[in-house]
Amino acid sequence: MTENYRAMWKDLGLDLEAHDGLLAVLGEAYQDIYLSQKNRPAGMGYFDFVMSEVHGLRIKELLDEKKAGRKIIGSYCVFVPEEIALAANATLVGLCSGADFAMEEVERILPRNTCALIKSSFGFKLGKVCPYLESADMIVGENTCDGKKKAYESLSDLVKNLYVMDLPQVKSDHGKALLKAEYNRFRKAVEGLTGIPVSDKSLKQAIRTVNAKRTAIHRLSALRKADPAPISGLDALLANQVFFYDNPERFTESVHKICDELENRIAEKNGVFPENTPRILVSGCPQAVPNWKLPFIVESSGAVIVGEESCVGERGTRNLTDETGETIEQMMDAIADRYFQVDCAIFTPNPDRLKHIQEMVAAYNADGVIHYGLQFCQPYLMESMPVEKAMEDANIPCLRIETDYSMEDVGQLKTRIEAFIEQLR
Amino acid sequence: MTENYRAMWKDLGLDLEAHDGLLAVLGEAYQDIYLSQKNRPAGMGYFDFVMSEVHGLRIKELLDEKKAGRKIIGSYCVFVPEEIALAANATLVGLCSGADFAMEEVERILPRNTCALIKSSFGFKLGKVCPYLESADMIVGENTCDGKKKAYESLSDLVKNLYVMDLPQVKSDHGKALLKAEYNRFRKAVEGLTGIPVSDKSLKQAIRTVNAKRTAIHRLSALRKADPAPISGLDALLANQVFFYDNPERFTESVHKICDELENRIAEKNGVFPENTPRILVSGCPQAVPNWKLPFIVESSGAVIVGEESCVGERGTRNLTDETGETIEQMMDAIADRYFQVDCAIFTPNPDRLKHIQEMVAAYNADGVIHYGLQFCQPYLMESMPVEKAMEDANIPCLRIETDYSMEDVGQLKTRIEAFIEQLR
Predict the structure, then answer these.
(1) pLDDT band at A325 (very low <50, low <70, confident <90, very high)
(2) What is the ipTM of this complex?
(3) How many domains does chain A have?
(4) Smallest Cα distance from B62 to chain A, Å
(5) Which partner from A136, A179, B135, B243 sits 20 to 30 angstroms from B128, CA to CA?
(6) Are A336 and A176 in contact (CB under 8 A)?
(7) DSSP state of B347
(8) A156 domain-assigned
(9) A398: pLDDT confidence band, cut at 50, 70 and 90?
């Protein structure tokens, strides 16, 4: 990124020195983890560019949108419907939460035993290093897990314009009614923010735009079924991560472009790893930018990741919103129907997730599953035990790991993961 | 307890050897912690008897009730309305969860980083040492915290007749509607279990019975305002614990009896601790039998506990159910209205709790607050930070502790608590 952005970051209230430090670490990590990969698809050049400009050009674009009267909404969860934001003339972006920052300050507000993802979102705020957060006209929290639910109470003291969405815990009629009511409340809040009411036309277009993003990523996912794998798990994860940041149309186009390339690679049997490389499905907690720790360890240990059963991955992008609705009400119902299927571990019971993991293992020809649990993430850690049992029952090798964003356990994880991969050969 | 009960325990499927071990430890702890107290009210003799027969006579009574056609319902939470159970000819009892048991087996099913209370409830089942659980015709779980919510999914494999109640996370109209709907569903489930429909008459009587229990415990609490304290925090906690086990009418009578005695003591300035002993309010997680660790440390360190802002305490017993309803619907609404006020940390936001803590500090003339957090209990640990801040703002000394059921940290806790008490003098 160029010097041009410093004034912009300063205007946003970032701590320039701390932010420089973050960008330096991020750039180095990206170099070591991403750019050092061999034989990457040329189309990844686009994502490399996006990442190199993730705090630069993309923020400038958002600020230009703001100048043109559009509003920016920041979100921490796949339950916040991008369709509604887009339809009311707002842009939805995922907020920074994949790295430890300002932990000492964070632990004055949150208990030490809080998951890394939540701590990170506070750290980026307290450390003043997240230009997305600072650009956002509205920040949306949601009552998913206890950790986030209670943390938003404290976040409301730190940010202006925090909006909290309630969510059900059970997939009952009552639960669905709550989700619908909350999505309608959110629509009104966004309309209030932008001053532009959602119309049947704008909502239909928004549904199409988001479905197009999802369709593109579904196409990318399907190509990962091939052996040899035409794209690394790291690169595919990056596309899934950029899903939350990028301009939707440009993202869709770029993913399709890389898919065209991957189809040629598959025809030529030109993989990023040799044929018969052990294939891993990662299942569990989201991996937000720049949390590339697990795939880096896995793919530098002789295996390839072929799918992410995760919010940043198939759990977040599975299922399209039905496009046939004509009235706002019909389309709002379709949106609620679509999101109500998300099989997050906050739901009880959550049998669909066990089914989806097994379906993904079969679809992507995975040889084993690594369950990725963030330390202190109760819903996923608790659900990891029935996941492991279901995998055992289905004779699918499964390794449960529990980690955070620190690098302290990398050696130990690598040893365990190498041993797991060895057993898959 | 006598040998007479061994056949009963065996019939219930208890592991007699493990159960003997548990009773021995429990008896010893009771001797060391309770019976060693000086100048106890004579009325505590009743509670000593209850505790000595907690797995004996009380279980026999429950089994006799079963023989007479009544049903036994076990619960883990103050959100399960005793009124509804009683009105449909069932007895509600709290289930064992205040001590570590069979931890090795538990950690095969639940993550290590699960709170002690949840682990304990599994340990008592897996170790086959809880006669209440084994006597219960229905076990009621509830979607409070993530830990319990997800744990019940696994508990359903271990017990028959698990019934799970959904709960709201927000005190909104939608939340209240959910609670009402769930209480009506619970009523139907209990009616189905007992075969006896709730009538307006039986529900009115049940409301009166439970209100009478609460009124008695309110009277006891009010007497703790006196200085010198007429009863120890340990003994008052015991009464609050027995609230969940005992026959309701007998409990009410016994509490009033001890209150009569305490009134005399107060008139005579006959305290269990000297006048001007530092007075502590305990706030936070429930302390289930036999979890007497914190009050034992506090009261053997020169302070007296004058109130429990806790589910086993005032959070659980605050507010009566309105008795003026005439129809089942009116009374069911009154029940939901009463329980909807419970200020559990699972709610977001939960400002009433901060207010209640301060009200209790004032009412009981507490000199300071100890926030009792069970390790890995996210809702209360997260809320402990705003609690601490609110206390600081109100110039109320506050000590946050985080512990479990093990005895490993007793020395360290005692040091911290002694230092805290010193600062209150």
Answers:
(1) very high
(2) 0.95
(3) 1
(4) 31
(5) B243
(6) yes
(7) S
(8) yes
(9) very high
